[in-house]
Structures are given as C-alpha cells and as structure tokens.
Amino acid sequence: xxxxxxxxxxxxxxxxxxxxxxxxxxxxxxxxxxxxxxxxxxxxxxxxxxxxxxxxxxxxxxxxxxxxxxxxxxxxxxxxxxxxxxxxxxxxxxxxxxxxxxxxxxxxxxxxxxxxxxxxxxxxxxxxxxxxxxxxxxxxxxxxxxxxxxxxxxxxxxxxxxxxxxxxxxxxxxxxxxxxxxxxxxxxxxxxxxxxxxxxxxxxxxxxxxxxxxxxxx
Length: 218
Fold this sequence. Notes:
Elements: E1 4-7, E2 14-15, H1 17-30, H2 49-56, H3 64-81, E3 87-88, H4 92-101, E4 105-113, H5 114-124, E5 132-136, H6 147-156, E6 163-167, H7 170-179, E7 182-186, H8 193-198, E8 203-205, H9 209-217
Parallel strand pairs: 1-4, 1-6, 4-5, 6-7, 7-8
Antiparallel strand pairs: 2-3
Helix pairs in contact: 1-3, 2-3
C-alpha cells in the first residue's frame, strides 16, 4: 500500500526553466562568456546548482576560481528572480490536494539548494500541503544517491515499498531504483520518455492527474 509520494521540484512540480536560464545567462554575460538558448538548459539542470554552472561554462573556463565567481553572480541574481516566470505546472495543485484528501503524505526531494528549495515552495504553494521538504544539504550527496531520500522516508515514517517517487529525469528514476521505491516519470518536464525508461521508470505519465490513478491502482 502506498502511503507517501515523493516529488522532485524543478521540472516536476514547477516549470523553472526560464528563470534558471535567465540567471545563468546573466552570470555568463557578466564575465563575457557565451550564453545558451533556454531550451538547452533542459539538459544542463538536474544535478544541483554547482553542476549546472560547470556545464554552462566554456570547457577551458571550468577552474574552481572561475566557477565560484560565476556561481556567486548566478545565485545572487537567481535569489532575486527565482519566481519571475516560475510557476506550478497545470494540474499540480489539484494533484496535491487530491493526494492530501486521500491521506497520503507528501514530500519533496530536490537537488536544488535546500534554502532555495524552501523559498520556491513557500512562494508558489501552500507549504502546509507538504509533510517534509528537502533540498541539497551539506553532507548529503545529490540524487541519485539515496542518503537524503532515506532520511525523508524516515521522517515521514514510511518504508521504500510504501512510496512512489515522481520526477522528470533519469536521475530521479535512478534514485527511485536505488531507494527501492516505484518511480513515476513525468513527461511535462525537462527530459524525455526514453531517458526515463532507460533509468528504471515503472510508470510514465503525461498529466498530473494520472499519478493519482496509478496510486489508486497500486
């Protein structure tokens, strides 16, 4: 029996691509580096903000000093503009309400920095809907490592086989496999069906409401 649903944040609950791309390009421009089209950021994001900055930098400019300078400019800009265009995907708020009405626990496990994860959720949602919210924290590797996912499950009081993990990337699906819970790959996010299936997705959904149906079937 499923007792909890764990969600990725970016690309799953919220469409944050434009704001991430804008802040990244602002940082790149600040140092005279080439910028990238917004669509390309679908493949730059996913493994945490430090990895994001490393990927957008020119290959010969990825030294630690340059990385830190660009990251600081990006993060300062993003901290002020993270909700300019970012919003929940259509149907997400209804899904969260439906899950809550059925008595399911709801958690967020994101590779975005923990403080920023909290800011985004507090800005865009009724935070009381979520039982536990975790972003990237010191001492915990990013997904698909499951150390933080297991901590979240422990706080929710559930076992892996009592959870599903919904996300938009192969990294999320790999995390579900590593954690021993069912993985639901969503197609409205940043990556495609093939990547999700290759990394172990148990289910693929095109609309948020389908997640509720899957849980009812399980």
